């Protein structure tokens, strides 16, 4: 791997699922010093960066990958195809989310989002009539799916092109990951 740059420490640490404290302990420095390096407030010596790089490389080769089930939200808030669009909007508002998977007997058949509803209204669809329609009539394509043991690096790439990823276990939806969930790793010390 070589010696990483101070600006790369945080991203590498998070990708490997290491806390600042754990990295500090393994590298022989304090957690506060790791925090300063990650925030750009400290310019570490070459020997310190070398130790940090070695620890991160070893952590990466020990299969310490972060899995999708670590950042997924569960249980899943969802809507059924026969539910009204108004019900979907109320569910999104109540749970402070912007999209929902559409499930029919534990099988994802589509999705619905604030964005797609707003686009329909902006393109001239009557809002009152839209609210009374069944979700199944207006839903978008289903969200991409991953297994619960998928590496979060895969999820990151999917989220570049999709608003959410459904996490499945033996074909059954067990969680959902949105762009907001990605920050769960960043918020852990």
Automatic annotation (TrEMBL):
<dbReference type="Pfam" id="PF01381">
    <property type="entry name" value="HTH_3"/>
</dbReference>
<dbReference type="GO" id="GO:0003677">
    <property type="term" value="F:DNA binding"/>
</dbReference>
<keyword id="KW-0129">CBS domain</keyword>
<dbReference type="InterPro" id="IPR051257">
    <property type="entry name" value="Diverse_CBS-Domain"/>
</dbReference>
<feature type="domain" description="HTH cro/C1-type">
    <location>
        <begin position="9"/>
        <end position="57"/>
    </location>
</feature>
<protein>
    <recommendedName>
        <fullName>CBS domain-containing protein</fullName>
    </recommendedName>
</protein>
<feature type="domain" description="CBS">
    <location>
        <begin position="72"/>
        <end position="130"/>
    </location>
</feature>
<dbReference type="InterPro" id="IPR046342">
    <property type="entry name" value="CBS_dom_sf"/>
</dbReference>
<dbReference type="InterPro" id="IPR010982">
    <property type="entry name" value="Lambda_DNA-bd_dom_sf"/>
</dbReference>
<dbReference type="InterPro" id="IPR000644">
    <property type="entry name" value="CBS_dom"/>
</dbReference>
<dbReference type="InterPro" id="IPR001387">
    <property type="entry name" value="Cro/C1-type_HTH"/>
</dbReference>
<dbReference type="InterPro" id="IPR017158">
    <property type="entry name" value="Tscrpt-reg_CBS-contain_prd"/>
</dbReference>
<dbReference type="Pfam" id="PF00571">
    <property type="entry name" value="CBS"/>
</dbReference>
């Amino acid at each position: 791997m070589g010696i990483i740059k101070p600006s790369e420490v945080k991203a590498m640490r998070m990708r490997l699922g290491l806390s600042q404290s754990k990295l500090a302990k393994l590298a022989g420095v304090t957690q506060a010093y790791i925090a300063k390096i990650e925030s750009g407030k400290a310019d570490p010596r070459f020997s310190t960066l070398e130790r940090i790089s070695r620890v991160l490389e070893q952590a990466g080769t020990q299969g310490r990958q972060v899995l999708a089930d670590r950042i997924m939200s569960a249980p899943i808030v969802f809507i059924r195809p026969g539910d009204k669009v108004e019900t979907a909007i109320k569910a999104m508002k109540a749970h402070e989310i912007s999209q929902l998977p559409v499930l029919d007997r534990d099988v994802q058949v589509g999705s619905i989002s604030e964005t797609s509803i707003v686009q329909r209204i902006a393109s001239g669809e009557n809002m009152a009539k839209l609210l009374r329609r069944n979700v199944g009539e207006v839903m978008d394509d289903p969200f991409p799916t991953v297994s619960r043991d998928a590496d979060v690096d895969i999820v990151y790439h999917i989220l570049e092109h999709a608003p959410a990823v459904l996490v499945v276990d033996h074909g059954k939806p067990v969680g959902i990951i949105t762009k907001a969930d990605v920050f769960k790793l960043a918020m852990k010390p």
